[in-house]
Write a structure and sequence with these properties.
211 residues; Arc Repressor Mutant, subunit A; Muramoyl-pentapeptide Carboxypeptidase, domain 2; 2 domains; 50% helix
């Protein structure tokens, strides 16, 4: 189904956090007035919030961001059912059974990802392929390089409810990323959606370059 202008704006806000109308217009390739009309509509629907920030002299700059209500546009996959199943496993079979379930999932996901990445011979190629896989799964993933360090960024978590109920899922994903990047890289999570931040971000550094 073709995305509307409003859908595209919500997607950009999800990916970028806060952004000005001018920056939105440039990214969408439409006029500032066209963007402002869409933003007014989204604000009236309580899907977008505004904040003002003074940047030097002159009038404050208005930034737009997603509201709490807009999270329904980026649903957590089968959230309530998943949480109830996890609670049942823990209640009926105990913590050890839940750990076994997560470990089994971790191994299967790692093998599937590694099969997809086996032809990617550089860290950049592996990150590009991994972001494609994760985005297809709903994580809205991207990567960037800054000052010799790589950052894997996931702007959405489609299993957030499950991860909040049992953070073993988050630990499992970090373990997989470490294995996929290889022994020569250090991978650490520096932002975490479950901790209340806007996205999950993983910093990836070559071990030989760490002082």
């Amino acid at each position: 189904m073709k995305k509307t202008a409003s859908d595209k704006i919500l997607m950009i806000l999800k990916m970028r956090g806060k952004i000005t109308a001018a920056a939105l217009a440039k990214e969408l390739g439409i006029t500032k007035e066209g963007v402002r009309l869409q933003l007014v509509k989204l604000t009236e629907e309580d899907l977008v919030e505004t904040t003002s920030k003074r940047e030097g002299v002159g009038r404050p700059v208005t930034y737009y961001s997603l509201s709490e209500k807009s999270t329904s546009k980026f649903p957590d996959s089968h959230a309530q059912m998943t949480v109830e199943l996890l609670q049942s496993v823990k209640s009926l079979l105990g913590d050890n059974a839940l750990d076994l379930l997560i470990n089994d999932r971790e191994k299967k996901i790692y093998q599937r990802y590694e099969d997809e990445l086996k032809k990617a011979t550089t860290i950049e190629k592996r990150l590009t392929k991994l972001c494609k896989i994760r985005s297809d799964e709903g994580y809205m993933a991207e990567w960037k390089k800054e000052k010799g360090e790589y950052f894997l960024i996931e702007n959405h978590c489609p299993i957030c409810a499950a991860a909040t109920e049992c953070q073993g899922f988050c630990r499992s994903e970090l373990n997989n990323f470490r294995q996929l990047m290889g022994d020569e890289f250090l991978v650490e999570r520096v932002q975490h959606i479950v901790s209340g931040e806007e996205r999950c971000t993983y910093r990836i550094r070559e071990k030989d370059n760490i002082l």
